[in-house]
Specification:
three-stranded antiparallel sheet, about 325 residues, 13 helices, binds iron/sulfur cluster, single chain, alpha/beta
Length: about 325
């Protein structure tokens, strides 16, 4: 596989050119994430260019610079959805791992975005820091009148010992609690979302029976159907989404450091349609090992980045499969 670069930075004109290329390729939605996308000097101009083309546009930020004025600019740029991340629903814990005062800035950002009329999600990543925070996080989101609460699965970027990683048993405990608490808090949000954790579908089926309703994607509710799940079930990497790094490298998802091409030198549509790695990712008959013979292969299919990080084989079994 080719090496992925993440260090360069583009000018505003280059970003606008990239947005044009995505539009020309038929992309319908663009999500700006990071790092911290709002440190781009002309972020509003770039976002505005995307929304003027008719692209559905969202941004994920820690909220540090979103005061009332900036929230209004985000709204006026046509952005539809703003996701503000915290590391913990406990202020002291959050600030220990970010910067002192950052928790309050994130909370203020949520309030400012709500006041500006934006659709707002509060997000948290399921790490060792937040093992016992499912309900506290949902209570916080509710108190801030968030539209969405999002739990991100933590995907380590290397095989090294990682103090933030959860064991499979710890992750299963959190996911079970989210499924249970979701019933209690569902009415308070447009949606409670679990992202990058296709294995939750196995857990959900185990807890509710195999004919259960599966809620797999954002605001859209799907019922179990082989045909539909083959399309929407499981990990999105390379099937619904591609990521572009700050060097222009095209990846299946931000965590999946397999270079498929580069937006500056390759035709985006050509990569999307013809790239061989993407072809492999789109056919679950290619899965090997436990995932290859699993009855939840269609609903789940495992995360493909994790076996790639662990063994170099993106078709291998997901090492973080639940019991
Ligand atoms: S074996 Fe693979 S497809 Fe089956 S539940 Fe585990 S991660 Fe998902």
């Amino acid at each position: 596989m080719k090496d992925v670069e993440i260090s360069n930075e583009f000018t505003t004109e280059q970003w606008i050119n990239i947005i044009d290329k995505l539009y020309d390729a038929g992309v319908s939605a663009v999500s700006f994430s990071g790092g911290e996308p709002l440190i781009l000097k002309d972020f509003i101009k770039i976002a505005n260019h995307a929304t003027n083309l008719g692209l559905s546009t969202s941004v994920a930020s820690n909220g540090a610079i979103i005061d009332k004025e900036y929230a209004k600019k985000l709204y006026d740029s046509g952005i539809k959805y703003v996701e503000i991340s915290i590391l913990s629903s406990n202020e002291a814990k959050n600030d220990l791992y970010r910067k002192k005062g950052s928790f309050q800035k994130s909370i203020d950002a949520v309030k400012n975005c709500k006041d500006a009329g934006l659709c707002v999600a509060l997000s948290i990543t399921m790490t060792n820091l937040v093992k016992d925070e499912v309900e506290e996080f949902l209570k916080l989101g509710k108190s801030l009148r968030c539209d969405v609460c999002t739990f991100f699965n933590y995907i380590p970027m290397s095989n090294d010992e990682d103090p933030l990683s959860l064991s499979n048993a710890e992750k299963e405990k959190i996911l079970k609690e989210i499924i249970i608490k979701k019933e209690k808090y569902e009415k308070d949000f447009k949606e409670i979302v679990v992202v990058q954790a296709p294995e939750i579908s196995k857990l959900y089926c185990n807890m509710h029976g195999s004919d259960c309703e599966l809620k797999q994607i954002g605001f859209t509710k799907f019922t179990k159907s082989e045909y539909l799940l083959d399309y929407v079930g499981g990990c999105f990497a390379g099937r619904f989404i591609l990521a572009i790094t700050t060097s222009g490298d095209i990846l299946p998802c931000p965590f999946f450091r397999v270079k498929l091409g580069n937006i500056l030198t390759d035709n985006f549509l050509d990569v999307w349609v013809h790239n061989k790695t993407l072809g492999l990712l789109r056919d679950r008959n290619n899965w090997k090992g436990k995932c290859g013979v699993c009855e939840y292969k269609i609903q789940c299919g495992g995360c493909r980045a994790r076996p790639y990080i662990q063994s170099g084989d993106l078709l291998g079994s997901d090492p973080s499969c639940l019991a």
